[in-house]
Design brief:
Length: 309
Amino acid sequence: MANTSRMTSYQRREQLIEIGRSLFASKGFEAVSVEEIAATAKVSKPIVYEHFGGKEGLYAVVVDREMRAYTLSLHDALPISQARPRQIVERTTLALLTYVEENAEGFRVLTRDSPKTDPASSFNSLLGDIALRVEDILAEAFKRQHLPAKGVPYYAQMLIGMTVYTCQYWADQRKLSKEQIAAHIVNLAWHGLSRMEAKPELRFESDKATKEAEKQERREIKEIAKRERKAAKEAQSQNNTNKPQPEAKARKPNSSRKTQPPPVIASIAANANRRQTQESNSTSNRGIASIAQANKHRRKLTNCQQRYP
């Protein structure tokens, strides 16, 4: 189809780039066709092929322009020789948000689906370059805080990803101002960086945490069982104390078995028997002595009567 208004070749090219950027931003690369691009520009399909060779060529030009605009917006933010670390985080975040604010469609093009034959100068490649520059900044900060440098590349990717995805959400949900959303991003990023541990660990979901939780559970089970046994023992003791004692049954005397006296009584009885025996022997001895003395006097008397008649 022909366009009634005449444009120069440069003007037509710029028109197709603007239309292509708008369509790619709203629908994504795969959903846009050359027919739709030509119809929106009110030109024939050959015009599109003449300028860009097809949809892929137009998409590559749009992405290249947006990447250059994005790179320029960050150019003055990252290389700050005299700035403090937090100031670098704030300025970088604001630079990205400023680009999103001024180039909303271009940012959507960069973050939406891209063709399978993704060019080397794609948005992911650009983010990789930015991540390398962030790594240099983080490496100095890690060195000052005596943190292991092996985690620097991962933290750089985390910061870039967190910021980019937040910008994607903010591009469609602008309930907060640019400065407010930047303050929220910096709040999370900065306070997280300032309180990092040298050897971070998962406190609840790691294998170590699971094993420790199992040990704690076993200790609690043992403690509960111990308390239950103690309570049962105390209850049994209390029941035995309160239970009336049965009367002792009188034992029948056993004629075939002599009752043995207690040891103390037996000792007293033995001593008494010895004293009685001694006294009996003493009395007997005295009686014999008296008889012998009487016999002696009787003999003396008999001798005197025979000598003196």
